[in-house]
Amino acid sequence: MNNIIVAGAVGLILSMLGTPLAIRLFSQRGYGQEVREEGPSGHHSKRGTPTMGGTVIVLAALLAYGASHLAMLSTPTVSGLLVLFLMTGLGAVGFLDDFIKIYKQRSLGLRSGAKALGQLVVGAVFAFLVVRHPNVYGITPATTRVSFLRDIDPSIGIVGFTIWVLIMIVGFSNAVNLTDGLDGLASGATGVVLGAYVLIGNWQLRNNCIDQLGPNCYWVRDPLDLAVVAAAVLGALIGFLWWNAPPARIFMGDTGSLALGGVLAGLAIATRTQLLLIILAGLCVIITLSVIIQVGSFKMTGKRVFRMAPLQHHFELKGWAETTIVVRFWLIAMLCAALGLGLFYVEWMPRP
Questions:
Q1: What does the pLDDT read at residue 100?
Q2: What distances in angstroms separate CA 264 from CA 30, 195, 269, 276, one per listed residue?
Q3: Which Pfam families would you find in this protein's record (predicted)?
Q4: Mind giving me the DSSP string for 90-124?
């Protein structure tokens, strides 16, 4: 438990102190946000706000994870390192996207094909490694099975599993990216999911099958270290949110949104809660569905369901204040995370 506290505290402090330095550095270098011309008119005032703040989140989380193990004199685990690799790799793809936007002074960075390729390469490496490296009990960070509260039989094979992992990684990294449309929205929405994974990892540790074999125990390789990873990223995210809350003084950019989507997918895969993530991160899923519905409706009927997609911009065009949308969407994110945690714990509730 001390590992979790240290990781969260160090991540928070580093991010809280590091973000103002990033704001100053990026402002001096002109690393400002470009805004879509067709977007809500209120967003034009945000042009030039420093972006790529996700670099602070990633660096603070990595340093916090290392500091936690150094303070506790413990060894990092394969599961934790793989999830951090996924976060950092996708963050690097997002960094390239953000840098191209800044360099070419436009709202579009990497071409969609190049961006997807980067996500797929990082995801494929993760998928290849995550089913290897068994511990002394033969437990690997993941198995070739789909999971909900735990692994579900039968195995879908290494090819099927790799495809499934890539769908998860690309899907959730893009889902967080779509959610990152208003000041503080993605930070708050992903923060509550990370908080849920701190609790899930801690619970799986206390009920692991190695120490107490039972009908509901968990075959998870490194539950404590996965909770440490979640706490480190959560602490870094809270420190960043202090400066990203409306009105934002810095944006996370694709660097942050892709990295956060990656860490959520990685935690879900390593804790064997893949399908549960759809509920825990329900707000991001709803926002992604709004884009799919909008595009599908326009292509099939020539009509739009929403005034603008993603969903948060629909409410902006209806006249809702940005802060109102952000707070209400945060509440929805909290309800989704609470529902997911409730489902996770339901099998432990006493039965009549």
A1: 85
A2: 31, 11, 9, 11
A3: Glycos_transf_4 (PF00953), MraY_sig1 (PF10555)
A4: HHHHHHHHHHHHHHHTSS--S-HHHHHHHHHHHHH
Taking the CB of residue 293, how many other CB atoms lie within 10 A of it?
A: 15
Residue with tokens 């930070």: 187
pLDDT digit string, tens, across residues 35-55: 555 555 455 456 668 888 999
Q: Rounded CA gap, 164 and 135, in Å?
A: 24
What's the full length of the chain, in residues? 352
Contact 325/312 with Cβ under 8 angstroms?
Answer: yes
- Give the whole-angstrom CA distance, residue 146 versus residue 168: 11
Take residue 38 and report the two structure tokens written for it: 């067709």
The CA angle 134-135-139, to the nearest 5 degrees, is: 60
> Is 254 labelled as part of a ligand binding site?
yes
pLDDT at res. 308: 92
Round to whole Å and give the CA distance between 60 and 63.
5
Regions of the chain with pLDDT less than 50: 41, 44
Residues in CB range of 306: below 8 A, 6 or more apart: 290, 293, 294, 314
Nearest 5°: the CA angle 107, 88, 52 is 30
- 22 exposure class (CB count in 10 Å sphere: 0-12, 13-18, 19+): buried
151 is in an annotated binding site: no
Q: What is the pTM of this model?
A: 0.94
Q: Domains of the chain: which residue ranges?
A: 2-347
